[in-house]
Amino acid sequence: MDIPVVEKEALVNYRFVQYEVLSSQYEMELRKILLEEAMILGNGEKHKVKIIFESLEGPVMVETTVWDITDTHIELKGRVDIPICCIWEVLI
User: Fold this and answer.
1) Considering the entire predicted model, what is its pTM?
2) Does domain 5-91 match CATH 3.40.50?
3) CA-to-CA distance for 11 and 88, rounded, in angstroms?
4) What whole-number distance in Å separates Cα of residue 81 and Cα of residue 41?
5) How would you write the pLDDT of the chain (92 residues) with one tens digit per residue?
6) Is 15 helix (H, G, I), strand (E, B) or coil?
7) How far apart are CA 61 and CA 70, in angstroms?
């Protein structure tokens, strides 16, 4: 299945699912570790990562810089937020 790639600025047009997409605690912990690594790379080196998330329209990928992480969301440049629970994968 081809996952559409969108620009960060287009994320405002997507509706994120509000449920946990991962099935195991291990996967959720690994995702959190990868997001923290992505934030360190984003703030230190302006390194972009690929994030695959689930929207109501289906899976979507964005290549972007992660600026901050809260308990429930990641913040991208331009004050765009993505709920952590809808993130399938972080590719560094």
Assistant:
1) 0.95
2) no
3) 16
4) 18
5) 699 999 999 999 999 999 999 999 999 999 999 999 999 999 999 999 999 999 999 999 999 999 999 999 999 988 899 999 999 999 99
6) coil
7) 20
